[in-house]
Amino acid sequence: MPFADELIGPHVAEQLTTSIQDAAPEQPLRELPRAAHELDGLSLRERADLLCDALLADVPGDYATLAAVVRGAYHHTPDFGGWLLWPVTSAVATRAVHDNSDAAFSDAMALLAELTGRLTSEFAIRTLLRHDLDRALIIVAEWTTSTDEHVRRLATEGTRPYLPWAVRVPEIVSRGGITVPILDASTGMTVSTCVARWPIT
User: Fold this and answer.
1) What is the pTM of this model?
2) What residue segments make up the domains of the chain, in order of their start?
3) Residues 38-47: pLDDT tens digits?
4) Which region, left, alpha or beta, applies to residue 165 given φ > 0 means left and ψ of -120 to 50 means alpha?
5) Residue 50 near residue 17, CB atoms below 8 Å
């Protein structure tokens, strides 16, 4: 197992800072450069959280503002990938929940699906699952038929009851079998049948 320094170290923080600055050249970045020097002694999860908080501080405003910056970096910076995606996707999910709007929730789910191929969005999606599990799972069910293997993997891995390094989604555990339709769909069951079988209460 690689050490935290190898996965999210100062070089990753600097790469994230550069990518965000390129996507938003008018935005002064103060917290991301500072965070690059505060990673020592932190666990991998703590490093991701620190960079997530720094990104949210450096790109203030509503969900749409952050999403535009992230998409700009994604589409114009080939190096915008790897482990820097963990704090980025976490920031996307956090800001969407903070906005608490249907539009932000739906777009955040779509953006996580876009980003997942460059590392994974499975950690960040847990924030949206915790916020509105039933709504999120209906979207996730559509992912099970995606032509993109990374999106299909996000559907099954992101909804696991127990996922290493990830926050728990208590409702998945308490509503036993709630994610079984996702697994059924991933093995060939149609999405319409999957949704019809959903054990929503």
Assistant:
1) 0.90
2) 1-121, 133-201
3) 999 999 999 9
4) left
5) no
